[in-house]
Structures are given as C-alpha cells and as structure tokens.
Specification:
Length: 279
C-alpha cells in the first residue's frame, strides 16, 4: 500500500452502536498498515455524495449497513456476482477511483454457523425479515444445503420476492400464521435478520410463538448484543447466539478486499469482545 494514511468508513444510519471501528482499526495496527476506519452516519439525501467521496486516492472503501445495502448500488461502477444476484452490497472497494461492490455477509454468516457448529444441511430454517441482511442469510443457507427455508415478513410480498429466487427451497409467509407455526415446530434454526431489537426491548416475533420451537433448536440474532429475543430464547432453554461472529467474519473479508492481505482474525475477535464487554 502507498505511503500516507488510508481511510475506510462504515456507511449507515444510525451508527452509534457499531463495533466495526474497534476491530478494523485493531487489525490495521496489528498489520502495520497506516489506515483508519471511521463512521459515516449518512442521511438519505447525502448518500450519493458520500459514496462518490470513496473514489478519493486516500480511500480504501467502505462497509455498508442498514438502511443502505440496496440503495448504494446505483452509485457503484460494478458488482461481484454475489452482490448482483442478491441485490445487496455490504462492502465497497475503491480500485483507483473505480467502485466495486461486494457482499461479504454471505460467507461471513456461513463461516459463523460453521464455527458455532450449527448444522443446517437438510434442516428447516425460519428467517425473519426481507431486507438486505435477509438476502445474505438466504444465500448462505441455501449454499449450505438448508431447506425448507421460510421467510417471514410483515409485507409478505417482499418476502415472496426473495423466496422466488430459491424455488423448491424457500417459501414466504406472514406472522402469525399456520405455516409459520408448522415450520417453527420442525426448525433447527430461527434467524432474526430484522433490525427489531437493535434499540429497546422489542422482539421480532410474538414470544408465545417461540414455544413452537424444539428444545434442540437454536435462535440466532444478527444483532450483536444480548437482545430481548435472545434473552427470551435463553429463558426458554433454547441455544441463543448473537451476530458478533458474523460481524467479525464479514468484516475480516472486507478488510482483506481493501488490503489484499490475510486478516488477523484473532486480533479482531479480541478487540471486539473487549469493547463489547466494556459497554
């Protein structure tokens, strides 16, 4: 990498909760790279200008989080096959002023499931949400052989658009409903891919519906702090997992795309866990 301080940012709104700067900057320091990762809390009207600023010589690129994983696409020059297929971008790489969009959520989520020893091959999975994060989760699950996969969203039409990408594997439904109750009873995994629970104690599914889950089922929340959903699942004796592992793995893949070096995963884990424990 050339001399001088390089920069990368996280684009989203709001961003006060983010751990990404902590572990990304720890990785830069550990690798001896003169770079800094910061936050870009962006209002919708400013999104085009902020993405355009990533073309500057000192910019490595960006991560993208809610609510902009789909909205940034028109401002990019090209997309990876995964990002194009999903219609969602969570990483932007600046290649000499050319902006390339990636989706590291897919391999990041899959890597954490494997690390947590959650087997989904041939298993029923219920996914809550139909946004960019849900698209990444769906791609990872289908790639790992899961099925059937039920996508649950308040607007069923949005869930149906995603389900249509996986014929014979995925189906869309609303909440509550007979299909959802039936699938929960056989599900090995329930995934929250909504932002419900990010702030406050709301949960994305009626608490009584968790009773349909088998005692052997796991509940995975992409939000990476102990949400009300995870606390409720734990109280019911279910295995409850937060999204810190997915955050680290997808962030490491983004770091590698920016730097063309292997990410120091151990350093990133240590920094993220310490920062979360201090909150």
């Amino acid at each position: 990498m050339s001399a001088g301080l390089k920069r990368a940012v996280l684009i989203g709104h709001p961003l006060g909760h983010s751990l990404s700067p902590v572990f990304q900057n720890a990785a830069f320091r550990a690798a001896g790279i003169a770079a800094e990762y910061g936050l870009a809390d962006v209002l919708p009207d400013d999104l085009a200008a902020v993405v355009a600023s990533l073309r500057a010589d000192d910019m490595l690129g960006a991560n993208v989080t809610v609510p902009y994983k789909q909205e940034v696409i028109p401002f990019l020059d090209d997309l990876s096959d995964d990002a194009r297929a999903l219609g969602a971008v969570n990483t932007i790489v600046n290649r000499a002023g050319h902006l390339h969009g990636l989706n590291t959520d897919v391999p990041g989520f899959a890597a954490d499931l494997r690390e947590q020893e959650i087997r989904v091959d041939g298993a029923c999975v219920v996914v809550l949400g139909a946004g960019g994060a849900a698209r990444g989760v769906m791609a990872a699950l289908s790639g790992m052989g899961a099925g059937p996969i039920v996508i649950v969203n308040r607007t069923v039409e949005r869930a149906a658009v995603i389900a249509a990408r996986y014929p014979g594997i995925a189906e869309a439904t609303e909440m509550p409903g007979a299909l959802l109750s039936e699938r929960l009873s056989t599900a090995a995994l329930l995934v929250n891919a909504t932002s419900v629970g990010l702030h406050g104690d709301d949960i994305p599914i009626p608490e009584e519906m968790l009773a349909h889950l088998s005692p052997s089922a796991a509940v995975y929340d992409l939000i990476y702090h102990p949400t009300a959903l995870l606390r409720t699942a734990t109280a019911r004796g279910l295995r409850a997992l937060d999204g810190l592992g997915m955050l680290i793995h997808q962030g490491a893949l983004a770091w590698e795309a920016w730097t063309e070096q292997a990410a120091p995963l151990g350093v990133m884990w240590e920094a993220a866990r310490a920062a979360r424990a201090a909150r």
